Structure formats: structure tokens, C-alpha cells
Automatic annotation (TrEMBL):
<keyword id="KW-0472">Membrane</keyword>
<keyword id="KW-0813">Transport</keyword>
<dbReference type="GO" id="GO:0015293">
    <property type="term" value="F:symporter activity"/>
</dbReference>
<dbReference type="InterPro" id="IPR000175">
    <property type="entry name" value="Na/ntran_symport"/>
</dbReference>
<keyword id="KW-1133">Transmembrane helix</keyword>
<feature type="transmembrane region" description="Helical">
    <location>
        <begin position="96"/>
        <end position="115"/>
    </location>
</feature>
<keyword id="KW-0812">Transmembrane</keyword>
<feature type="transmembrane region" description="Helical">
    <location>
        <begin position="353"/>
        <end position="374"/>
    </location>
</feature>
<dbReference type="InterPro" id="IPR037272">
    <property type="entry name" value="SNS_sf"/>
</dbReference>
<feature type="transmembrane region" description="Helical">
    <location>
        <begin position="153"/>
        <end position="172"/>
    </location>
</feature>
<comment type="similarity">
    <text>Belongs to the sodium:neurotransmitter symporter (SNF) (TC 2.A.22) family.</text>
</comment>
<feature type="transmembrane region" description="Helical">
    <location>
        <begin position="259"/>
        <end position="283"/>
    </location>
</feature>
<protein>
    <recommendedName>
        <fullName>Transporter</fullName>
    </recommendedName>
</protein>
<feature type="transmembrane region" description="Helical">
    <location>
        <begin position="394"/>
        <end position="412"/>
    </location>
</feature>
<feature type="transmembrane region" description="Helical">
    <location>
        <begin position="225"/>
        <end position="247"/>
    </location>
</feature>
<feature type="transmembrane region" description="Helical">
    <location>
        <begin position="316"/>
        <end position="341"/>
    </location>
</feature>
<feature type="transmembrane region" description="Helical">
    <location>
        <begin position="433"/>
        <end position="454"/>
    </location>
</feature>
Amino acid sequence: MERPVKSIHGEWTSRWAFILAATGSAVGLGNIWKFPYITGENGGGAFVIVYLACIAIIGIPLMMSEILIGRRGRQNPINTLATIAKEENRSPHWRWLGAMGVLTGFLILSYYSVIAGQAMAYVPRAFAGVFEGVTADGAISIHKAIVSDPERLLAWHTLFMLMTMAVVVRGVQKGLEKSVRIIMPLLFIILLMLVAYGFNTGAPFHQSVDFLFATDFSKLTHTGVLTAMGHAFFTLSLGMGAIMVYGSYLPQKTSILKVSVTIALMDTTVALLAGLAIFPLVFANGLEPGAGPSLIFETLPIAFGHMAGGQWFGGFFFMLLVFAAWSSGISLVEPIVVWLVEIRDITRLRATVYAGSIIWLLGLLTIFSFNIGMTWTLFGMTMFELLDYLTANIMLPLGGLLIAIFAGWTMKRSSTVDELGMGDGWLYSVWRTLARYITPFAIVIIFANLIGVLN
Ligand code: PHE
């Protein structure tokens, strides 16, 4: 197997197209739905610090590793790893790492799409003023009415999957790139509007800044640390091949270091801004920051229902969530589609239909977790909670660990110097040290800590 010089699927038209697309992948439900609620559940400040440290120490070097592997192999994650391993005279079994990534994509999108569907269901409701003057019980019952009805959830999940497939089917330039060029600017405008509003609520803004940045490490648990690390992977879309495949469309001369830092910064900024837009509302209305996954769907609407212009604010907020989820959903299917096209030699249309249908079907597990299957639990978790825990806290960090080992140990120094294209100076050495030692070490320690090996 020779290493292709170009991906058969196309190439981004510029460095910025790649940055937008990868940021679109990174910025998603993770930033706006998940980050605020896990921060709330884990007590705020100290959790945020661990998360930021994970982004810097594990996230950025790993993003560089994934992009460099992707651009060097220029195929689906499985063939990419196999081709590079062969070229480096290493075991062909590295392909299994790619396979795990493709599988992770299936699993994540299956529940991701259902949550995005809920956000979509909220857009017309918010604009129509359904939340006006709503009480806590009222907000819960509006949410319950949606999630307790499998048919409704299925309808929104189907719509989200169709929207995602409609983009992916059009290919790299006409689909992926074109969509993020529209989605991302809109997303930033809406977000800034919302933060400005949160800022104007006065005192609670400071309270939120305190909540997000005060460092009370006594509130941090082992699970909290694992959650922070898992979230760093999830939010940057690392450890499953999405960024690898996006990297396979990257022009040869682009600096991998610069794009990685830019993407990580933008993603982190959005998460923090989302926190600064959401927590002032939570505090101003005396609501509970640790409400869990329903923070966005049950707590926030109460705030929207009691503020001037809340109808618009709420409507735009859920629109923001849908846009963010859309550009991430695209990147979750892309690796699967590319893989199907390459191994089955079928058209992109067919591959998208196959991948989309399977994910759509898998989504039923999550849908049922909120209603008829609420009691189907394993290890005390519903199917949805299990999928989330398994993918975000285990599969992505494990994938990330192996990707770091592949880039740091399996590939020859000369190959990574060549692909990163930033010379062999101190900057390169920093990356290599992080990829070889620090990233794997940090991931292993956090895993070991969780299983209790260290206590
Ligand atoms: N990064 C996305 C988010 O934060 C989720 C995602 C994970 C997308 C893995 C692609 C791959 O919502």
C-alpha cells in the first residue's frame, strides 16, 4: 500500500477552511450543553482548571498528532494507520486503533443526534413564547412532554440525521466546507449576543466568573478529574479519527502547530463564553448550577421565561446549540463515510445512507432511555448514560493514548519532523516530549486513579 499524495475525497480550499471545519467539529453540544452542566456537577473552578490543563498538555499535542497522522496517510483512519505502520515497518495491527475510532463515531453520533434533536424541538417553542413566566415544575413538564414521547424524539432525531447527511453527501468542498462557512460565523454572532446579555444582568456575572474560576480543590473527586480529561477529548473531537480525517484534506504546506493552537483556543473560548452566558441566568434566578444534563433543557428555560426578551434570547440560544451540534455531527459521520467509500468502493451517497441509517437505528437506544427504556440499566446507568460514559470517558482517552504512542513512538522521528514541518528545534522537541511521555503518562495516571490502583 503506497501512501497517496492527496485524499481521493478532496482538499480544503485554504488553511482557514480547515480551521473553520475543525473548529466546527470541536465546538458543539460539548461546549454549550455538556461543559456547563459537568462544571456545575463538579463544583466549578477546580474542575475548570483541570480541564484547561488537559486541553493544553494533552489536547494540543494530541491534535497535532492526529492531524499529522491524517495528512500523512490521507485515507480513512483504518487504512491511514495501516499504511503508515507499514511504511515504518511496524505491526499492521495498528489498523484496529482506526477501527475503534470509526466505531466510536457510530456510538457518539447515535446519542448526540438525539440531544441535538431536543435542542431543535426547543427552537420553535422558545420563539413562540412557550416558556413565558414558566415555573420550575412547568419547565420540567415541557421537557418531559418531549422526552417521554419516543415518537417526538424520533422525529427530531431523524430530522437532525437528515440535515447532517445532507451536508456530508455533498463532499468535502461543496458540503463540509460550504456549510461551516455559513454556520460558524452565525454561531459566533449569536454567542456574542448572548454573552453581552448575560453581562448586563449585573452582579450574577461576577458570581459566575467566581464560580468558573475559583479554585476549591476540595470539591474535586477522582471521577471529576476523569470527567475533565474525558471532556477535553470530547470537546476537541480527539481520539476517534474525526480530526484525523479532516487532517487528510489539509494542504501539505499548512503549519500543523498553528492550526492546532488556533482550534483549541477557539473551542476553549466558546466553552468559557457559553459558561458566562449561562451561569449569570442561573444565578440571577436562584437556580441550581449542578442540575446535570437537564441544566439547559429544564433550568435555563425558567430564566428565559422571566427576563425581558427571553423569548428571543431563548430561541437564539437553542438555535446556537443546533448549529454547533450540526457542524460536529458532520465530523462524526465523515470518517465512517470515507471508510465505507474506500473499502467498499461505493459512492458517497450510498456510504452516507448506510452510515446514517445505522446511526439512526442505534439512536433508538438513547431515545428509549428517556421513556420506555428508562429502567434498562447496566452498571446503574441508562443506555444513554452508558454510551456517553463509555465513549467520552473511556474510548476517546484510550484512542488518544494510542494515537500519542503511535505518533511519538511508532513513527520515526524523521517522519514526524517531516510531516509537522516546523524543523527539528526546541518547539518540535516540546511536542515530541509531550506526545511520547507526558500525554500517555497523564492519561494512564488518570485511568489508574479512577480504578483505584493508586489508592
Ligand atoms: N467536539 C464535539 C462537541 O464538543 C463532539 C465530538 C466528539 C465531535 C468527537 C466529533 C468527534 O460537541
